[in-house]
Amino acid sequence: MPEAPRPESTTAPTDEELRTLDAHWRAANYLAAGQIYLLANPLLTEPLRPEHIKPRLLGHWGTSPGLNLVYTHLNRVIGQRGLDALCVWGPGHGGPSVLANSWLEGSYSEKYPDVSRDAEGMTRLFRQFSFPGGVPSHVAPEVPGSIHEGGELGYSLAHAYGAALDNPDLLVACVIGDGEAETGPLAGSWHANKFLDPVHDGAVLPILHLNGYKIANPTVLSRLPEAELDELLRGYGHEPIHVTGDEPLAVHRAMAQAMDTALDRIAGAQRAAREQGAAERPRWPVIVLRTPKGWTGPAEVDGQPVENTWRAHQVPLSGVRDNPDHLRQLEAWLRSYRPEELFDDEGRPVADVLAPIPGGERRLGATPHANGGLLVHDLPVPSLDDFAVPVDKPGTTLHEPTRVLGDLLARIMRDTADRRNFRLVGPDETASNRLQAVFDASGKAWQAGTLDVDEHLDPHGRVMEILSEHLCQGWLEGYLLTGRHGLFSCYEAFVHIVDSMVNQHIKWLRTSRRLPWRAPIASLNYLLTSHVWRQDHNGFSHQDPGFVDHVLNKSPEVVRVYLPPDANTLLSVADHALRSRDYVNVIVAGKQPCFDWLTLDEAKVHCARGAGIWEWAGTENGGAPDVVLACAGDVPTQETLAAAHLLRRYLPELSVRVVNVVDLARLLPQEEHPHGMSDFEYDGLFTTDKPVIFAYHGYPWLIHRLAYRRTGHRNLHVRGYKEAGTTTTPFDMVVRNDLDRYRLVMDVVDRVPGLAVRATAVRQRMADARTRHHAWIREHGTDLPEVAEWSWNA
Fold first, then answer.
1. Where is the Xylulose 5-phosphate/Fructose 6-phosphate phosphoketolase N-terminal domain (predicted)?
2. Which of 167, 519, 555, 697 is 20 to 30 A distant from 633 in Cα terms?
3. Which residue stretches of 276-400 are H helix?
4. From CA 618, how far away is CA 545, in angstroms rounded?
């Protein structure tokens, strides 16, 4: 049982505390504005001149004062209550604020000693912001305390809940911008509180920051009447606490009271669940913060209102170098914060500014929860020998690969029952994807109502199902970034919904790898199943293998794509992925009965190679092959081996090499990807001058793109999915896309020199088989017996 929440504290701040809170907030505002504008003269020790101003003014001022207010008041409650806390900054373009606050608390200088907490360091802080060779304008990985970039809006609340899962003593504050609140993913994320376990999970405190405007328009939630907004938030299961105003001391007082009220309610809900066994889902608090956009900035510029309008969104004064009036206005704005009261002659923050800041790892920029690699423990992946399927002869027995993997995941779930650092997420598909063995070890997280017909629902469960791929992705990202492990299981066609999210995570990992102070985190692992070739029952809408193409366009040091052809290779690939760090691993594997090709030992060796010759499947006799049959993916592998079987029968004199590819990046040159082959390796495997008939799981053009620089590329002929889908039989799917065994044999006849004349009868036999297939399925609704009953040793 987690420890009980810390004692409640409702002591209102004294006038002295309010004074120091305001000093801290003003200092943060000054530093945020300074980062947008100043190259030099950071303490305004002389009048501003054009050469003190950056030549290009970039950044976002509008949200910064509100974020600074939240940071300041989180400091107060963290210090007073001794909280472990993390904040997810949804308006990630408010980077100036989080950079300013981490510099004030000292966590930034600890990570970057050259940006010291003095005038010299302040100059570097200002200069580097949105400057060549410097740091981005968003709350990027370079910013201590961050787990959320925020460049693409919509994912902050999902990340916050992911961070809170299995972190019972952690408070995760989440600032949600009112523009972000309009996105679909954020709207779905409000339902995450129906999955938050008050016993084993931490708490999430959403702070909805309504400053009224996006880039050029008002925001929806800011224009709702307060009563209607309250109805919406209460409908989501939250109890709103409002803070509204533009007079600083009054807002400070109201914000302090709101924070205390919210945290008292959270502590009470956790105590009721942990000590009294309360089972009713709490109504968690949400703070609704209404402050002006661009608060404390220029009220008017060139006769146009700015503060509290959309014009404050980015840079309120844009012509400072060239317009003397703008320069004077900027200097007046910066001096309004009275920097001489906030920093000493050396540029160090004075005692009043530092007073609200908690100590050590309780500082938001220093919390190890925002550098999850410091907290991660190795996952107890058991020996694969306990789960491997026996293979006496290849291609004679069948298993459902993901069902076999499900047994492994169930063991991991059992072995992490006490440490609670592994989660399985997916959009309502765990059982559909044949992973239901995990329910013997953990139920499905659920805090809403239950009925007698429900199965496997458990308020303390660690399987997460919700019909929102965005929320599944966000949960898992937040979970991994705070030091835990997980797997995302999804239908292949619909993982595209998170294309943008995985893109952001890959960028985060790539940047993090270049930061020595960020420790490696557990990899983001996808299991894509219910794939294109076995969505024959659901039809065209469920047939899309293109996620692999999307991922392989990304940073090569981060992305990995695996297509295991059977159950044992899936086990081997999963073992590697679950143990790995700082990768995005995409595993595409079938859930339908699939032939077993390799023993576990053979699978381990083959997966370690990533691509290799299956000597038992070919007919090479020590010389060079006449043709190479290559394959990647479970269904293409079966069709390739069936084609090799037909070639043994009808063209026994032909020398055939069969190559299977598990690790798709092996096809890339070694200069382009860490897993890529040298030209020497590639040419040895695929030859430089023989036809290569490549049966591929996805869109065929990807293989051409990966291999276009190879010597033998002109001999490469790829068959794959070409958008010829419908509701039909399994074999008809491959026939429609010319990936079937008969078509592959025809390709061999067409492309091996001399065969077109000598093997005309064989080619005709294959074409006739395809014709028989079309007639058969339309009469019987099932595949030809010679296909349905085929095995390697038949």
1. 14-374
2. 555
3. 324-335, 339-342, 351-354
4. 28
